[in-house]
C-alpha cells in the first residue's frame, strides 16, 4: 500500500491550495478515504472523509466550509481543496484509507504564514 501526497507549500492567510494523493496497492474505489493532518506538537487528526463514490463527505468543524474533499476513482487519487487558509491550518497533511492500520505516506507540508 502506498500513499504519495503532493501539493503543499507556503501560502499567505486567506490563500488556497489543492492537495493530491496518489494511491496504489489496494482497491481505491472500494475504500472510504480520509485526509489527516498533524501540526507541530499535536496529535494527528482527521480533517475530512469521503465515501466510496464521493456522495458523502464529512469534515472536522475547524475546516467545515473551507475545505473540500474529492476523489477520482479512475485515477486512484484523492484531493483536498483548501480555501481561506488560516495559520492554524499549518501542518503536515496525509491521506489514508479510513480506519486502516499500517504505515503512512510521507505527507505534504502546508505552511500558512504572512
What does this structure look like?
This protein has 114 residues and is mainly beta. The protein is 0% helix and 48% strand. The protein is built from no helices and ten strands. It has strands spanning 2-6, 9-11, 17-24, 33-38, 45-50, 57-59, 67-72, 77-82, 91-97, 108-112. The strands form two sheets. It has a six-stranded mixed beta sheet with strand order 2-10-9-4-5-6, with no helix packed on it. It is globular, with a radius of gyration of 13 Å. The mean pLDDT is 96.
In short:
With 114 residues, the chain is an all-beta fold. It is built from no helices and 10 strands.
Question: What's the SSE blueprint?
Answer:
Blueprint: E1 2-6, E2 9-11, E3 17-24, E4 33-38, E5 45-50, E6 57-59, E7 67-72, E8 77-82, E9 91-97, E10 108-112
Parallel strand pairs: 2-10
Antiparallel strand pairs: 1-3, 3-8, 4-5, 4-9, 5-6, 7-8, 9-10
Keywords:
114 residues, mainly beta, six-stranded mixed β-sheet, four-stranded antiparallel β-sheet, globular
Q: Sheet bearing the most strands, described?
A: 6 strands, mixed
Q: Unreliable runs, pLDDT <50, ≥5 residues? A: none
Count the E strands: 10
Distance between the termini: 37 Å
Return the average pLDDT rounded to an integer.
Answer: 96
Helical/strand content category? mainly beta
Percentage of residues assigned to helices: under 10%
Tally of alpha and pi helices: 0
Strand composition percent:
over 45%
What is the radius of gyration?
13 Å
Shape: globular
Give the strand line-up of the largest sheet: 2-10-9-4-5-6
H-E string: EEEEEEEEEE
Amino acid at each position: 500500500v502506498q500513499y504519495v501526497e503532493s501539493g503543499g507549500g507556503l501560502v499567505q492567510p486567506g490563500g488556497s491550495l489543492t492537495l493530491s494523493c496518489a494511491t496504489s496497492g489496494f482497491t481505491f474505489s472500494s475504500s472510504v478515504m480520509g485526509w489527516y493532518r498533524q501540526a507541530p506538537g499535536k496529535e494527528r487528526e482527521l480533517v475530512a472523509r469521503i465515501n466510496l463514490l464521493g456522495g458523502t463527505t464529512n469534515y472536522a468543524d475547524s475546516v467545515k466550509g473551507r475545505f473540500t474533499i474529492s476523489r477520482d476513482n479512475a485515477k486512484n487519487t484523492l484531493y483536498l481543496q483548501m480555501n481561506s487558509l488560516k495559520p492554524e491550518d499549518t501542518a503536515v497533511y496525509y491521506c489514508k484509507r479510513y480506519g486502516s492500520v499500517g504505515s503512512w505516506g510521507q505527507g505534504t507540508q502546508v505552511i500558512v504564514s504572512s
